[in-house]
Write the structure tokens for this entry.
Amino acid sequence: MSDQEQSTVAPRRVVVAEDESLIRMDIVEILRDNGFDVVGEAGDGETAVALATELRPDLVVMDIRMPQLDGIEAAKRLSENHIAPVVLLTAFSQKELVEQASEAGALAYVVKPFTPNDLLPAIEIALSRYQQILTLEAEVADLVERFETRKLVDRAKGLLNERMGLTEPEAFRWIQKASMDRRTTMQAVAHAIIDQLAPKKEPRKAAAAEDDAAE
């Protein structure tokens, strides 16, 4: 994309939610310095959800620990209602918090203290993953099948990254293009990738297992 084309693209709109005002100011400054349009700020989770629901931003950057409504529950509400992708900020790197954030629908997280080099890649990951989710949901109507398709596509993306060196967005585009070229679903393409690239059981181990079962 040329500089002229980039200048015509509207800046991505962000709501920032952080109860510590100095940290919130830092986040807003980082975002504005990097071409984002901060359209709303909140100091608690309830206000963040209300602002995001009203403004429909492209992204919400939100702290996990906030009054009235914590970031995990706020992310869950935003995710369930397809309001916007969420990047969560946390001073805690415990595994259980990260798992809770992921289950709530947060698409990326950043551990405090962070720099622009930590925050900006996490934002791009969240935006990319959100577009992938919307694409998959447009293809698969059934909720259960949609969840299974997302798991299959995630596994296929991992294999393409491991075996072909593709980044996550590149792997998704590869799967999407293959499905269009072959006039089939992304789920079918993901199955084919897994069948072809996933490690196979060693024949000796498989034979040994059969012998044990026979005994």
